Structures are given as structure tokens and as C-alpha cells.
Known about the structure:
The complex is a heterooctamer, with two copies of chain A, two copies of chain C, two copies of chain E and two copies of chain G.
Chain A: E1 4-10, H1 20-24, E2 30-36, E3 42-46, H2 56-60, E4 66-72
Antiparallel strand pairs in A: 1-4, 2-3
Chain C: E1 2-10, H1 15-28, E2 32-37, E3 47-55, E4 67-72, H2 75-81, E5 85-94, E6 108-112, H3 114-120, H4 127-138, H5 144-154, H6 163-183
Helix pairs in contact in C: 1-5, 3-4, 4-6
Chain E: E1 29-31, H1 49-64, E2 70-75, E3 89-93, H2 98-108, E4 113-119, H3 120-126, H4 128-137, E5 142-147, E6 150-151, E7 157-158, H5 177-180, H6 186-191, E8 196-203, H7 207-225, E9 230-236, H8 240-243, H9 247-261, E10 265-268
Parallel strand pairs in E: 2-3, 2-4, 4-5, 5-9, 8-9
Antiparallel strand pairs in E: 6-7, 8-10
Helix pairs in contact in E: 1-7, 3-4
The complex binds thiamine diphosphate (2 copies), iron/sulfur cluster (6 copies) and magnesium ion (2 copies).
Amino acid sequence: MAKVKGDIIIDIEKCKGCELCIEACPQDSLERSRQVNNKGYLYIVKVLDNCTGCTNCALVCPEGGITVYRKTETGKKQIAKIDNVTQDMNIEVNE
Amino acid sequence: MAKVKGDIIIDIEKCKGCELCIEACPQDSLERSRQVNNKGYLYIVKVLDNCTGCTNCALVCPEGGITVYRKTETGKKQIAKIDNVTQDMNIEVNE
Amino acid sequence: MTEEIIIAGFGGQGVLSMGMILCYSGMIENKEVSWMPSYGPEMRGGTANCMAIISDTKISSPIISKYDTVIALNQPSVDKFEKAVKPGGFLLYEANNVIHPPTRTDIEIIGIDATKEAAKMKNTKIMNMIMLGGFLKKKPIIEMKNILEGLKQVLPERYHHLIPLNEQALKRGMEMVEEASLVS
Amino acid sequence: MTEEIIIAGFGGQGVLSMGMILCYSGMIENKEVSWMPSYGPEMRGGTANCMAIISDTKISSPIISKYDTVIALNQPSVDKFEKAVKPGGFLLYEANNVIHPPTRTDIEIIGIDATKEAAKMKNTKIMNMIMLGGFLKKKPIIEMKNILEGLKQVLPERYHHLIPLNEQALKRGMEMVEEASLVS
Amino acid sequence: MNERALIDDEHYEHTLRAEHTEIIDRENIVYEKPGTLIDIDMHYCPGCGHGVVHRLIAEVIDEMEIQSEVIGVAPVGCSVLAYNYLNIDMSEAAHGRASAAATGIKRVMPEKYVFSYQGDGDLAAIGTGETIHTCNRGENILFLFINNGIYGMTGGQMAPTTLEGMKSTTSPFGRDVATMGAPLKITELIAQLPGTYYVTRQSVHTANNVRKAKKAIRKGFEYQKLNKGTCFIEIVSNCPSNWKMTPIESNHWLNDNMLPFYPLGDIKVPKNGGK
Amino acid sequence: MNERALIDDEHYEHTLRAEHTEIIDRENIVYEKPGTLIDIDMHYCPGCGHGVVHRLIAEVIDEMEIQSEVIGVAPVGCSVLAYNYLNIDMSEAAHGRASAAATGIKRVMPEKYVFSYQGDGDLAAIGTGETIHTCNRGENILFLFINNGIYGMTGGQMAPTTLEGMKSTTSPFGRDVATMGAPLKITELIAQLPGTYYVTRQSVHTANNVRKAKKAIRKGFEYQKLNKGTCFIEIVSNCPSNWKMTPIESNHWLNDNMLPFYPLGDIKVPKNGGK
Amino acid sequence: MKELKLMKGNEALAEAAIRAGCDAYFGYPITPQSEVLEYLSREANARTGMVVLQAESEIASINMVYGAAGTGKKIMTSSSSPGMSLMQEGISYIACAELPCLLVNVNRGGPGLGTIQPGQGDYFQSVKGGGHGDYKLIVLAPATVQEMSDFVKEGFELAFKYRNPVLILTDGALGQMMEKVELFPQQERKFEELDWAITGKPESRPKNAITSLHLKAEKMEEINIHLQKKYREIEKNEIRYEAIDCDDADYIITAYGLVARICTKAAQLARKKGIKVGVLRPISLFPFPYDVINKYADKVTSILDVEMNAGQMVEDVRLAVNGKVPVEFYGRMGGVVPDPEEILKVLEEKLVGVAV
Amino acid sequence: MKELKLMKGNEALAEAAIRAGCDAYFGYPITPQSEVLEYLSREANARTGMVVLQAESEIASINMVYGAAGTGKKIMTSSSSPGMSLMQEGISYIACAELPCLLVNVNRGGPGLGTIQPGQGDYFQSVKGGGHGDYKLIVLAPATVQEMSDFVKEGFELAFKYRNPVLILTDGALGQMMEKVELFPQQERKFEELDWAITGKPESRPKNAITSLHLKAEKMEEINIHLQKKYREIEKNEIRYEAIDCDDADYIITAYGLVARICTKAAQLARKKGIKVGVLRPISLFPFPYDVINKYADKVTSILDVEMNAGQMVEDVRLAVNGKVPVEFYGRMGGVVPDPEEILKVLEEKLVGVAV
Ligand SMILES: Cc1ncc(C[n+]2csc(CCOP(=O)(O)OP(=O)(O)O)c2C)c(N)n1
Ligand SMILES: Cc1ncc(C[n+]2csc(CCOP(=O)(O)OP(=O)(O)O)c2C)c(N)n1
Ligand code: SF4
Ligand code: SF4
Ligand code: SF4
Ligand code: SF4
Ligand code: SF4
Ligand code: SF4
Ligand SMILES: [Mg+2]
Ligand SMILES: [Mg+2]
């Protein structure tokens, strides 16, 4: 079990179903839903609970539609929000 | 005495008295005249008989106003007209 | 005979080609035709429509504001063009995409669920052909064989194997409109 | 008083500044003035001229075709502008540069060799000031002290040490015209 | 398009398997949409890199807290409506003239941050003269140059950066170098000019690249504060619609075809690290 | 100006000392004005390099015997009247657009030799876009680029190539790199483009340089016959009038100031010698 | 046999260029005319060897046209409003140097970046001269896809007849719409040496120079006088217009391009109501049919000019009418296309004085 | 105390820009207006901190103006005919985005490269709109060096009053000639935050966007309607003209700029001969004094319009007169300036019918 736990919220009305987040997720947590949103796109949903909060999905989302949460076991946020730009590349395998 | 003899004819009506030919002549054969031409310029004249026909003066003349003649002792033209572009650089000291 | 039509829907639903097929086939029957698309920054979806006029006589204005027939493939199109049907005219809409159906009483209104039907036929792209068939049922202004001929011109060569499917879709549309007419 | 003048010669002879000096000094005397140069691709010599108008009243057109005075500094200028002197007007030309002097009889014509005179004064550039002096002798429309004031404005600061020389040139020009008038 | 009818039921169930955890709480947020990115739909096609770059600009502005000090310029091109998405003062500009407009702004507002956001058609075709001279004057502005190898907005014509052999509506048989010229590496060109200070090529087709691109953008703004001269960031991007690919395909294609020709990385970096 | 009065008699006698010799005879001519240079006065200022370059073009055309196969383009600038001096078909062109016009001509007349003759203001300021793209397409034309570091025709304004600190009517306190940018070495830039084949920088301020410049021009035409792509010859030249120097001074100044910044020599040469 | 096709206006125009034996097209993408470049990129070179080059800008395009037209070949470009604005300097050069060539403006809604919807806001630019100095383009305004095709051929003919650039002024709607078009047969691409053209100076003639420069004002005035004479000649010979039901009309609508067809429909609707309306459609905008309109002004009560702009051609209509009858104007702007009912209403209100 | 100076028109204009508190000038050399850039390069920055930048082209200049004017500062450019043609796209953008700024065209003889001698061939371009779409510049035509100075101040005021670009349309002769000019005092260069301007969005207001894009035709039409309303407002408030001896005149000459002064001299000569001639000089070319001319048309026998072109403003004069009296035209072209005697002769021949 990872020391870091993550979660995401997808703004499904923003989503255009491009699936880039699916491809970007190292945990394979995401998949296309079978619903269309108001814009008519098959939006994306989280299908597994293994999210590490790596932010990859959010970073590649052209619609800015994903919010990422993250917590270490100690309860401290692993990385400050302002720092996501400078965070290490190996964060994805950090579990 | 040089083996090569040269001479030039200056089209004084073309001349604008820029004196670039004077500066270019390795023999110092040329000088400003004290006459103005129809355009009002003090044109250039040959003042010494030591021309080697090196073509320098003609090459730098912006008005295309100088014709250069050249003859070796054998009577053969040293360089073909068409070749002046490719002639050796040391022609100037060729006397 | 002059039939003035507008076909409207989302970009990508194939409204432009519906109009084109009508015009090509009208031409085959030696009719005068004109096709006028709405055009916009194409790449970014949105709505699309085209006006098509098929006539026995010279067409003056290719731009008109009242139509003999409106074919609406989505809700915004119904909302926008319902009022533009000439009194006594015809409004055909795609029922799957339209939650609030049109309500005018001085015109003939038929809705068919061509989307579902197309899904059943395993090719969602032919929804538009079902709608076109529906239209032709009510307004048989062009012969079916010429419609198929027109279709051939619009469809790129590499899709010509789909012509039978399209024909089927046209026919299915006709049936659906017939059924719907019986109901109403 | 209205004096309409054209000053013409080769580019570089200083015809433009002659006109400018007149205008500056006219302004000092509270007169209306206008100065209109011919302009062209400056770098390539050729001829130059300027029209100058000095008047007690408002100047309508700064462009005119008949002049009270023509000052011609070379042959082409004489050839071109002799006919543009108003009857009874004045034509002053630089004799060194003019082989075929003007011939009209209904105007006053004076030629002076300002070039030679300038050479004698060891500064060929002041030829134009000699001419200007000559003009002012005949047409004393502006006081000498104001002319010198105008000159100051036209001459860049770094040449102000030459003002006495210029004054001398103006005076010499006046004398020459006086002499020439006596002769003719 | 409304594809409601398309979905078959069998795949549905697993979409319900995942549940939200207790960590969904403001204090645990590690990534959210930046405030400077306005909360409305963007008109870009699904998967288009323009959206990502917009977001990165907004993130950097938020992080540097310079929202009130930034003025942007976006000329015609798919991103012409950027002023609708970024909550900062912006100017649209004529095709190709963004850097001239940005120069005008910066010259009269030297204390503000000014950036131009330009497509490859804009910056490297019609705007070539403005691009070169703005960089040569070393205007203290930031270029964001979105190179998608195509004229996106007008429907997929050949751009100066279109790859050799690549098809477009105006190179239907593929770009033929003999008659149309080779794809133009304008970034390498302007890096040669003494006026440019920091020149780099980035992409946003993977999360890692997004991180790097953001760093670059931040550097660009920071150097501008120091009046260092022109900063120029090329972003190699995709155009799924006109490349006629899905977004995922387009990113792979980008990786496999664009990047070998337009290699990522810094092209000109400050000698002393920009200090 | 007529300076007749200036001449004092004392220097006169020696001008008579030299006499013509018997070798004045057509068969001994080693240099004469080329036939393609029309026998009328050119409007250039005394000592201006434009005249020399015109003559060289004419010489090369004569030597290659291609007078009937050459079409030239000269845009506005001091050399705008080149069509009056060169006895070939020519087109004037709008400021900066010579290479576009030349492209148009070459594309419909691919079998002809086409050259453009442009000043530095023309080619490297307003015409930058056309220059870069013509070179990038590798149009089979020859550029003759007269870099005199100034806008000659309009009376001496700053050009993109004006040297740092150099005064002009629009840089009256000297070119200030911080606000006006550094002098632009456009020749080095275009040499980077795959479309260019032969790129060289020459001058005509000494007889030797004239010889070399002519060789370069000849190469430019010869490569064009072989359809090798764009040939580009910069000629660093003078503008005595706007530099406010005598012609001789201007050539010295060119040598001492222009050449260190714009060094002469080939910048891009065919790998195999152009064979 | 007739070759009938259903085509977009832009494509019919491009096809016509190929068939007219056009030698080269230089252009730059802009909506709503990009189909011209796209169609030619696909079709032209393989079929006739025609040169098709996407330039780096509209300025490059027009100057490529300038250069190439100097050789006496058949050269063409097309663009839409903002792109045409960029070409104005080049157009002034081309007109002054008297180079035959074909320009096409598929007008969109302006000003500025505006919209890509159809417009007629570029009438002044096209007809009065958006570039500097006194010059005239021959301006043809098609109203059907057929004319989009036909005017290409006619345009080239006029261009060479008068050594003058010809502009086809059309709009986005006509560019995008499809109609039946009868294509004219492929003409051979053949090259004729013209005595003024730059083709490489043979021994047999003096050198040619293409130029619009004349430093001396007097010389430049001569050039202008020559041009003006030519324009008078064109005015004498080349006026084209269509008068639809004008002869018995009490009211006339003037309109050009597609709008004229919309007005024709409006006129038909009016006649159904008993109002006798005709439509006068100038086809050549320069030369403008001043005299024709002036004559009709003697017969009608009033004139309504309809345009997709804020009122541009209406000035020429007023100049033609010279105060004889009132000239009213109705315009839609920014890409909005009026429809027949709307025009009928305006007609009744403004001209007939019937409130509806 | 009055500050009187003898100055070239171009220099007076440049000096006025400095004194009017202009914030930035962007320009490119072209004869006969290079003195503006040159003068400013020498004088401006040291005196007021004004930005002076030589751009790489006229297109860059006008787009620098576009960018900078968006900040609400006082921005300016100048050029001459071919350069102005290149600016037409940018001008259309500026007009549509409603950016206040000052443009100057020192008109030379065209078309094409033409000549650097003075001309008035750019009237259509300036007044009708050389760029695409329906827009209007406020166009002021000075006739004296004094006005070259004054109109700069007035131009900036009008530009900001209406958020509209103002064009000073003058010619090479007026640019090059010297006259006495009374300089207005130096105004402070102060910066006022304008609510529409892009200056960096503070918390206190929503973001601003400078744009001329509206994809939807309906929205774009609204923009156009708004612009047209503004233009009507300008027409109501800002007509400027000079009527010289018109009130008792039997004949009127219409002319603008320097030519009007030449015509005034001609009129004086005519009055000496007993012919009562007045001169009507439109100062604002847009808005054009249609009504004024129309009223005079009731009193005079005929009107002669004189221009240095092939006949451009004469169309507006005719539109104003609307057929009431004959409007004759006399023009010189390609840089040739008419002189008073010549105009007098034309006047006698064409209007009075006296053969001379
Ligand atoms: C003067 C002018 N010419 C052409 C156009 C049409 N146009 C609009 S955007 C564009 C190019 C878009 O391509 P790019 O700059 O690469 O941006 P992208 O859409 O690919 O992001 C063109 C040619 C225009 N608006 N103005
Ligand atoms: C559109 C336009 N802008 C400006 C000009 C004015 N102009 C003519 S030549 C020239 C520059 C000349 O400099 P360069 O190209 O270096 O040639 P040179 O005279 O130095 O040989 C300029 C700015 C013009 N004719 N057209
Ligand atoms: S934050 Fe990382 S692990 Fe979690 S869903 Fe997004 S990409 Fe997958
Ligand atoms: S990346 Fe964003 S827009 Fe694309 S599918 Fe995922 S959530 Fe939707
Ligand atoms: S040919 Fe040579 S030696 Fe003779 S005059 Fe000329 S430069 Fe002097
Ligand atoms: S180089 Fe030519 S123009 Fe110059 S002085 Fe010598 S002969 Fe005269
Ligand atoms: S057309 Fe291409 S660049 Fe434009 S929004 Fe769509 S995908 Fe992006
Ligand atoms: S101005 Fe300069 S470049 Fe032009 S001709 Fe004179 S010296 Fe030569
Ligand atoms: Mg792009
Ligand atoms: Mg130069």
C-alpha cells in the first residue's frame, strides 16, 4: 500500500472526452464513461481507487477540468500546490 | 623597364571625380585634373607614363569610365579580356 | 415545383451533405438547384445548416427566410427554425435529440428517432440518410434512383461500398415517416 | 509690400538657405513669409530651387508662377525662369555660371561673378551670400541687421564664427550690384 | 456530436467501482485550475494543446502574483479568443503582427509583463519580419510560439513548419521540399540574434513535458522582470482536427514525427543562469 | 557643383606630362566597359559602390553570353533605376518585395536567369519576410544584396545593418543597441536555411575585392543554371553621401568599421564545389 | 456537349482558372476563400502544368503576381477582406505598371478581423481605390456560381485587352454556395510574347522595364493622363449590367452580387402585391453604369439601393441619379445577409410609403 | 508670450506631437515625410521621454500603434502614400477596435512608386476607406504650416473624444515648405487610466480586451451599428471648413489643403477681373461639409473643384450639390502642383465661359 494517497475530481461538464488523461495516468485509474455531458462528449471518470495524486491527468487536460488531491500518511501534503511545476519527475512511481 | 606596358583611356565625361582610381593605382599614374567636365566634376587624368595595364583603376571606377590596354614585349596580350576576373592578384607588381 | 428547404443540426451530423445530395440529384433531373451552407470556423463544432432549393424554374435568391420544409437534427435547430416554416409547410425533426418538440399547429410536424435507428443499423453516420428518406417520403420531389445517383457524387469513391447501407437507411426513413404519419 | 522670389541653381550652391535667410529675417520684421523648396531624391545633385514670399499681408498661395525677382545661379535656371519674371521685375544671375545671359528687355537684369568673388574671399561657400547681398541692394525689403539675425538662425551654431565673413559677402554683393547697375 | 445512442451497456458497471475518498478536501489540493483561467468552456477541439498552454500561462501568472501586471497579445489563429479565457488584459492582433503590437505595448508600458501568443502560421509565415525584428531589437517580451505544423483555424493548410511529406489541404500530395521549401526552424534562427536571451523548445504532449514547459514559461516571465531581452518559447503542439487523428494519436504522431525534426530543449540559455 | 573658380594654376602642368602610347589599340584592350552596361550617365553619387556592382553584373552577363536570358528585379532604393543602366529586361519592385517579384518571375520562367538587386533597408528591414521565405523555398534566383549600412535613397536613415554607435538621421546620437537592436547579419541567418546553396559576402572597395566579387557573381549565375537553389551575395558597400565622407574616406571607413563586423568571405559553399 | 457540374463558387472559380489557361496562382489561406488555393493545389499542376504557390503572406502573393504578370503570362491571386487590404500597395503598383492579372476578393464582414460571414464592405476599396494614387481596377461582381466561372475567363480577356488588373469582387456566401455551373472547355495554356513584357531581352528588341516610378512630376503626370485615357476607354466599352423587369418599373432596386438576386426575389414578391419593382444590377462596378441608372431615374419614382455594408455603392447610384429622384439605402452589415421578405418590407416602407 | 518659429510643415507637425504630450511615435522612413521621424529622433525623447521607434516597416509601425494605442496612451505614426497603403489592414483593425491615435499621410504623387512630389491621390483611400469594411477615419486636411501644428493637438483631442483614429491628410509640398508657426505650449505628458484600455487588469475592474473579432454576424453587425452611430455623431459635431469670400460669390471653387490656398489666390485674381469667386475649403474631409456646400449651391452659378488628382473629392462635392448646379473639375496629377494663373484660366473657361 502506498504511503501517499490521492484522489481527483473531474469537472465532467468541462470534459471533451479527449482521453489524454487516460493515457497520462500511470495508475490506469481513468476511463471513458458511457454518459455524454451537455456538450455531447463522452466524459471521463475515475474507475479505480488507486490514484496517487500525481497530477499527470490534470496537467495534460486541455480543459483544466481536473482537480487533484493528495495526502501522505502523516497527513501532510506531499508537495505544495505552488511547487507542482518544480516537483520531481519520479513522483509517478512514488507509491 | 617592365616587360608589360599598359595604358588607359578615361572617358572624362563619365568621370565624377571620386578619385577611387587614383587611390587604386599602384603606379600613382593618375591625378585629378584642374578641369571640370560638363557635369561639373574635376575629372581624372593620367599624369605618369608608367601604367602597367593592371586594370585596378578600371575595376574600382563606379562609372565604368576607364578602358585599359596592355601589351607584353612579345606583343601578346598578357591576359584575355574575358579572364580579368580570374587573373592573379600579383598582377599589380608584375612589372 | 419549387421546394425551399433548410436542414440544420450540429456540425458533424451530416446536414451539409443531405442538402448536397438533394441538389446533385435534382440536377440529374434537370432541375434548378442551389445549396447555401452556413459556414464558420469549421474546426470548432457548433451548429451547421444549409439551405437547399430545388425548382423547375430559375432560382433568384438562394437565401430565404421562410421554408417549405425544415429538417431539424437537434434542439437548437427546432427552436430556431420552427417559426420559419411556411404555413402549411413541413417540419421533420430527429426525436432522439429533441427534448422539447415543436408545437405549431399550422404546419405538419413529424419526429423520428433516426439516431437510435442508425445505431441499430450499426452505423451512426447514416442517421442523416434516414432523415433524408423521411423527408422524401413526404416530399417526393426527386426519384429514388436519382437520389442514389446524387449520393454517389457526394460520397467519396472509397465509401461507395456503403451505398447499399445508405439506400437501406433512406428506405427506413421513409417507413418511419409513414408510420409516424399514420400515428399522428 | 509683397515680394515674390524664386532662387534657383545647382543643389549645393546654397539656394535653399538664401530663401530661408530671407524668410527668417522677414519674420523678425513681423512680415508674413513662406518658403517652398523644390525637393527631390536629394542625394543625387541636380537642380534645386525655392520660392520665397515676403509680404506685409497674409500669403494665400505659397506656389506661384510669376515672380517679382528671379535669382539664378546657373544656366538652366536662367533658361527656365527668365520668362517667369513679372514685367518690370528683376533678374539677378551669377555670371560665372551663365554663358548665355538673359535677354528680356522689359525687366531689369543684372549679372555678377559671385563665384570668382567668393574664391577671392577664400570661401566658395559664400557665393550665395554675395548673391543675396546683390538682391537686397536692389530690393531692400529687409534691414541688414535683421538679415544678419536671420542668418544666425539658419547657420548652425558651429559656423557662427563665419558670420562676419558672411556679412562681408553680403556687402560685397551689394557693391557689385551697385557697380553693375551703374554700368548698365 | 451527440453520440448518446452509441453506448452499449456492457461496459458501464466498472465506471461505478471507484469512489471518492476522504482526502477530497481543500487543504489537500495539489492541483487545481488556476484562478487566472476563466471558468468557461474553451472553443478548442478536444485534446488540443492550446488549452494546456493557456492553463500554464495562467498558473505562472497566479504563482508569480502578477495578474494585474500582465498584458497579452493573441493574433488571429485558433487561439484568437484567448482573451475570453485568460483573466488578464489582452489584445487581439492582426495576422502575423502580434509581436509588433506587443512591442507597441511594451514600449509605452515598460513596467508591465507583455507576452505574445502566436501560431506557426502567424509567427513564421506572414509575421516573419515582425518576429525577426522584434527579437533583434531584443524587446523585453515573451513569445509563446505554438507550433502545430498547420494552419489550424483556417482548416488545415500548410504552415511554414509543416513537415516534409506531410499532407495538408494545400499540400495534398505531401509537402514537397523542392517546390514548397523545407520546414522552417524559426526558433533556431531567432536564437542567433543578440537580442534574444532565453530560447527554448518545449511540448505539452505528456505530463512531464507539461511540467517542463511550465518551468520555461515561468523563466520567461522572470527574465522579463529583469529586462533581459526577448524570451522565446516554442511549444511543439498538436492539431488533432486538421491532422485528422484522435488526440492520443496526434500526441504519438507529434512524438514520433515532430520531435525528431523539432527537438525539445533549450536552444539559448543565459550564460550566468540569468542572475 | 561647378567649382571652376576653385582651381589654382600651379598644379596644372604635370597633368600634361603623360602621353598616350601606341598600344592604344582595340586588340590590346584588357578592360573595357561591358556592352550590357548602357552607355549613359548613372545617377549615383561620386564613388558609390552601386555603379561598380552594376558593371560587374553586366560583365558576367557578357562573359556568359546570357543577355537574352536574364531578368533582373530592382526595388526602390538608390538602385531603383538600374533598369536604365543594364541592357536587360528588368522589373522595378515595391520596397522590400523584390524577392517575391523575382519568385513570381522565376516560377513562370524557370529557364531564365533571375536576380534581385536589393539594398539593406529593402532586403533586411521591410523585406525580411520575403527574404527569409524566398531563401527557405530555395528559389532558383540570385540575390545581390548591397549592404551600405544606411537608407541611401531616402537620405540617410538608420538601416537594420547600421553599425552600433553609427550616426544616421534617425539615430542622431549613434545606433543604440539597447533600444534599436544590434545590426542584423541577415546573410548569416539565411545561410542557415536549407534552401540556400551558395552564400558569400564580398565588397568592391578595392580592385582585388572587385575581382573576387565578380567571381562570386559569376558563380551565382552558374549555379542558377544548374538549378541548385538560392544563391545570395552580400556586397558590403559604401554610401559616401550619407556617411558624409569623401569616396576614399568612405572606403577606408568601410574597411576599418564595416568589415570587422561583416567579415568578407564565403559563408556557405557547395559541398562538392557545385559540380 | 455541355459540361454541367454542381460546384461551390470558390471551386468553380478555381476550376475556371485552370480551364482559362491560367499560368500561375499565388495565394495565402484566408476564410472564406481558402478553397481556391486548396482546389488549385489539388488539381491544377497535374492537369495543365499551372504553377500554384502558397506564399508566405498576401503581400508576398501580390508581389509575386506583380513579378510574374510582368512576363505577360496569365497570373492570378485571391484573398478576402483583410488580406486584400494588405495587397493595396501592390495593387497600386500593378495598376500603374499596367500589368494584366486577375485578382479575386471573396468579401467577408468587416472591418478589422470581423467575421468570416459574407459582406460587401470592400466596395470602396475595390472600386474607388484602396491603394494610393489614382488608378482603377476593372471590377466584376458575379451573382451566380456560373458567373464565378465565366468572369474568370472574361476577366483575363479584359485584363489583357487593357493591360489592366481585373478584380472579381464576390462574397463569402457566393464563394461557399453550390449551384449548377456549365464549365467552359479547357483552353490551351500557350505563351505569347508581348512587346512590353519582360521575358529576357532578345537581340531583336530593346530592353523592357516594368516600372511605376517617374521621379519627374511632369512625366508622372503623363503616365496618369495615359491611365485616365485608358479608363475612359474602358468606361466607353465595358459597362456590364443586368436590368431585371426595369422597363415598366415604378421603383428600382440597385444591388450587386448575390444581394441583387435576393432583391430580385423581393421584387417578385412586390409585384405579387401589385408594386412594380425592377432590379438594376451593376455587373461591372468599374466601369459603373452611371448613364443606365441616370436614364432609369427619369422613369421611376424612387430608387432603393441595397448592400451588405453601411452604404457604399449607393454613392455611385446617387452620382448617377444626380438628384433626379430620391435614392434610399438599406444595408445589413458585419456578415448579416438580408432576406427577400425584409427587403420587401423596406421597399414598402421607404419607397412606396406603405407602413406594414 | 507667443512662440513664433519658421518651420517646415513636417517639423512643425513633429514639434507639435512632442508638445501635445504624445507618448509614442512609431514610423518608417519615406520621402517626403521622413523629417517627422528624423525630427522626433533628435528631439523627442530627451525633452519629454516620448518613445520614438523606427520600425522595420510601415506594417510593423501601424501594428505597434495598434498595440500601444490599446493602452490608452497618445500614439502616432506618419507615412506617405505607398506606406499608407501598407497600413490599410492595420487601420481597419484600429478603427474597428476604436483605438484613438493619430495618423499622418504626407501624400505624394502616385499611383505605384510614383514620384515624391506632392499629390492628393489618396483622398479616396483616406476618406472612403482604403482598408476593408465600413469604417471612417476623422480626416483633417491642413493648408498651412500653422495647421500642421494645430491639427496635431486637435487630432489627439478628437481621437480621444470619439475613440477613433484621426488622419491628418497633407501633401509633400506642405510637409516641405516653411512658414511662420505659432507653437502651442508644451503640455504635460500625463497618463490617465481609461476604462476600456489594456493596462494590466487591477482587482478593481474586469479584464479588458482590444479586439475587432466577432465570429457571429449578428454581433459583428451590432459593432457596425455602433460605429455608424458614432460616425453620425461625428458628422453632427465635427464638420470644419473655411469659406473664403463665398457669401457674395457667383462661382465657388472647392479645394482642400494647400491647393485651396492656390485657388484662393486664383479667386483673388478673378475678383480683380470682376468675377466674383469664392473658395470653399473643407478642412474635415470626414466629416465632409455636405450641407454647407449644398446651401452654397443654391446661390452660385456653378462650382469648380480643383485637386491634385484625377478627381476624387469632386464626388463628394457632387453628392453635396446633388444636381443643383454643374460641378466642374480640374486636376493635375502625378506630383504636378497647379498655379494660380492656371486655375484662373480654367475658371474662366469652364465656369464663366470666357475663352482666354
Ligand atoms: C491578413 C490575414 N490573412 C489570412 C488570415 C486567415 N488566417 C487566420 S488564422 C490563420 C493561420 C492560423 O494558423 P496558425 O497561426 O498556425 O494558428 P493555429 O490556428 O494553427 O493555432 C490564417 C491564415 C487572416 N485572418 N488575416
Ligand atoms: C512602402 C515604402 N516604404 C518606404 C519607402 C521609402 N524608401 C525608398 S528606398 C528606401 C530604403 C533605401 O535603402 P536601401 O534599401 O538600403 O537602399 P540604398 O538606397 O541604401 O541603396 C525607403 C525607406 C518606399 N518607397 N516604400
Ligand atoms: S492524479 Fe495521477 S494517478 Fe491520480 S488519476 Fe490523475 S494521473 Fe492517475
Ligand atoms: S484530459 Fe480533460 S478533457 Fe480530456 S478526457 Fe480527460 S478530463 Fe476530459
Ligand atoms: S591600369 Fe593599373 S597602372 Fe594603369 S593607370 Fe590603371 S591602375 Fe594605374
Ligand atoms: S574612378 Fe572613375 S569616376 Fe572616379 S575619379 Fe576615377 S575615372 Fe573618375
Ligand atoms: S483546429 Fe487544431 S489547433 Fe485549432 S483548436 Fe482544433 S485542434 Fe486545436
Ligand atoms: S545616396 Fe549613397 S547609396 Fe545612394 S547613390 Fe549616393 S552614395 Fe550611393
Ligand atoms: Mg498552427
Ligand atoms: Mg542601403
